[in-house]
Amino acid sequence: MSSPATLTALPLDGWTDAESLFLRLFADTDAAFWLDAGPDAADGWSILGAGEVESDADAVRAVPLAVDAAAESPVPFRGGWVGWLDYESGAGRAGAPVTRAERQPQGAWIAVHRAIALDHARRRLWTLADPASAEAWQAQVRSALSDDTAPPPPPVPATSTAVARHGVREYTGLIEECREAIRRGDAYQLCLTTRFRAPRPADPLSAYRRLRAATPAHHGGYLRAGDRSLLSASPEQFLAVSRGFVSTSPIKGTRPRSQDPVEDARLAEELRTDVKERAENVMIVDLMRNDLSHVGVPGTLNVGRLWQVETYPAVHQLVSAVSVRLRDGIRFGELCDATFPAGSMTGAPKLSAMSILNRLEAAPRGVYAGCFGHVGLDGRVDLAMVIRSIVVERDGAYVGAGGGITWLSRPDAEAAEVATKARAPLAALAAELPREWAALTADLTEAGGEGNSR
Hints:
The strands form 2 sheets. The protein has a 20-stranded antiparallel sheet that branches. Helix 5 runs antiparallel to helix 10 (350-361), helix 5 (168-184) packs across helix 11 and helix 6 crosses helix 11 (411-428). The protein is globular, with a radius of gyration of 21 Å. It is 31% helix and 30% strand. By secondary structure, it is an alpha+beta fold. A hairpin with a 2-residue loop joins strand 10 and strand 11 (228-232). The protein has a domain at 165-199 and 238-364 and 401-447: Anthranilate synthase (4-Layer Sandwich). It has helices at 18-25, 57-61, 87-93, 134-144, 168-184, 204-214, 261-273, 275-293, 332-339, 350-361, 411-428, 435-438, 442-447; strands at residues 8-12, 31-36, 45-53, 80-85, 108-119, 124-129, 160-161, 163-164, 189-198, 220-225, 228-232, 237-242, 245-248, 251-256, 302-311, 315-325, 347-348, 371-376, 381-385, 389-393, 396-405, 431-432. It is built from 13 helices and 22 strands.
């Protein structure tokens, strides 16, 4: 296969939505991607395109990260790779024991050959292709702008019932084992996860369109590499590299929205002031400060936001942000080795947490709890967490869900949160939670709430 090259960016008059462009230009492409700022986005970028599946993952790891702000293009991606990393590859590199599914492939990258970048704040389009074909690609995209309406996704097929990796009683028992590990001092926090399996959808793209309509998010995405697809409505940016800095924005702490404005405001304030949620959040902030220090210039670590409530259509979330100036010569692989898997998906201390979770979960997470996004040849990076997501493999579709466990966690509430988080992705697959898990969401359904983030 040919390696990715720096792409020529050409501005294009006119505007349309990313969904209609993807449907017209990339819907049937074997290696395609749609990094999605969300329906009706008023800021941020959506980037969609196609290429070839990369056979050499080390080529991505070898990319030197951007430290020269003056050399950056106004378009956030000018060629490179789009793809995902699985949880086990990162945990194994960090020295933790891992459980892998037999014969199941792990990470995947697409070497990008042509793309479109949509600047939602300025409502501007840019086409991206190699210099020899840049004008022809611009003309092809221009012709696709003549119809800017996307047909609705096909009707949802008959509903199936998902199969749970753990029963409710088994999962709450694992929560108690997490609390016991915390009592012993083996960890401060543990992000315990489980998984639900549904039949493989006939059309993963239609499932993604249903998912983004139900749970809009600013770091969503649809990535297809052959017969594998990742469908994500992720609200969490894992890593961003730009202008010489690397930043992360961990989410820990969730409350459902309410249709009553007074109650909705109360829930947001409750989240902002909750002792358990604040403690859980700041533990991950401290962990990420430590991780980033391994690639940063001493004295430049900064917590730009702490315990900020962000509000989305379905949930309130407690978000913080940590950044550091990169040292010269750091490559993408070194950044991954220092920070991945994300602390918000492991717990703290990280190595101890991953080892405990491997024993308790006793099954691979796969792509769930990993990350996805783009790694540019110019050293810019934007990766999101694989949460609130669907992973489509040859043998079925999988939805992971979990939550951060602390000593103050209540097993019944934590299990209900897992059920709520898994419900929307499963619904996009026309699948229902198993009955015992569905029963846990009854109270939140009556209150009009949805779950979120892990």
